[in-house]
Amino acid sequence: MSAQLINGKEIALALREELAAELAFKKYRPYLAVVLVGNDEASLIYDRNKQKAALAAGMDCDLHHLPEETTEDDLLDLIGRLNGDDNIHGVMVQLPLPKHINGRRIIEAICPEKDVDGFTPQNAGRLLLKDERAIVSATPAGILHLLKTVHQNLSGLHAVIIGRSNIVGKPLASLLLNQDCTVTVIHSKTVNPKEITRQADILIAACGCPKMVKKDWVKEGATIIDVGINRIDGKLCGDVDFDDVCDKAAFITPVPGGVGPMTIAMLLRNTYQAYLALKK
Ligand code: NDP
User: Fold this and answer.
1) Handedness of CA 13, 18, 20, 21 (dihedral sign)
2) Which residues are tagged catalytic?
3) CA–CA separation, 256 vs 263, rounded Å?
4) What is the Å distance from ligand 1's center to 208 Cα?
5) 137-260 sits in which CATH class?
6) Which of 111, 136, 172, 252 could lock 224 by a disulfide, CB 3.0 to 4.6 Å apart?
């Protein structure tokens, strides 16, 4: 069997076009503020791409690019101003922040109703409680969207997630539990992980270990979502050994072009959701 590709690039483009078409007939523009501290080149490119995508979808978007030496208090001041500005509906701070800034304190300062990354304790808690007000962080929301393109019903499927980070593994576990999946989460202390991954109807790799998941980790006919973004000799690869597993899986996301493009699309959707909730 040769796995069918789940084309995140095309699916994300369709989502962004759908959003643009919806906003084209509105008199308002949702407004996203992106905050970047420091000069990490990859983050700057990524945030400029977010800005371009937001503008193309018919939103407004400012990129607040602050110098590396910005103090925690100055950053908190900016977030306070963005929180208090009624014209702004979404606020996100690019992570990681420079070491002298306490990232948790910064995230917790963002108004939950404008927290389009879904990283505040309020949104994480609402997701856990299956509260519809939750703004769900963009990467897990994008993964769920991809899964729904190939599974009409996720109920009862065994989903195994490799990775328990606050931005991918944990919110994804809640999201899939809320879809009635049976969820198992694997982490670096898990004993004999492939005994578990071999039982997965849906296997999601989000551990940052290049090509760790091989054929003998995979159940025949499984759906594989590869979240990892790694480089080997300058070439991008995921956490799954694509060539090794693709005869065994039924569906698989490529890297690049799988989960990555979904993240920006879902961030824009979250900004629109935040706008609608704030205007109620
Ligand atoms: P983190 O480093 O925050 O978390 C990695 C997780 O994987 C941890 O829970 C860790 O376990 C677990 N882990 C590490 N090594 C192993 C192992 N050998 N076996 C089992 N579990 C292991 O990473 P992120 O969640 O932020 O990101 C994961 C990957 O996804 C990265 O490659 C990142 O670049 C990519 N990513 C891609 C995005 C996209 O848009 N496509 C968005 C976000 C991330 P423990 O908790 O025990 O340390």
Assistant:
1) positive
2) 50, 94, 117
3) 13
4) 5
5) alpha beta
6) 252
The residue to mutate among 40, 185, 207, having the most atoms of ligand 1 within 8 angstroms of its beta carbon, is 207
Q: For ligand 1, is residue 165 a contact (CB within 6 Å)?
A: yes
Nearest to 278 by CA among 88, 59, 28, 51: 88
> What tokens were used for 67?
């110098």
26-111 and 137-260 have identical folds: yes
Q: Return the SS3 of 34.
A: strand
Neighbouring CB atoms inside 10 A of 248's CB total 20
Class at the top of the CATH hierarchy for domain 26-111: alpha beta
Q: Where are the domains of the chain?
A: 26-111, 137-260
Each residue of 112-137: pLDDT tens digit? 999 999 999 999 999 999 999 999 99
Angstrom distances, CA of residue 277 to CA of 115, 140, 236, 261: 12, 21, 38, 25
- Residue 261 Cβ < 6 Å to ligand 1: no
Distance 165 CA to ligand 1 centre (A): 6
Instruction: Note the pLDDT tens digit of each residue in 196-244.
Output: 999 999 999 999 999 999 999 999 999 999 999 999 999 999 999 999 9
Residue nearest to atom 25 of ligand 1 (CA): 165
Residue nearest to atom 47 of ligand 1 (CA): 188
Q: Any idea which residue has 């963005």 for tokens?
A: 82
Query: Model pTM?
Result: 0.97
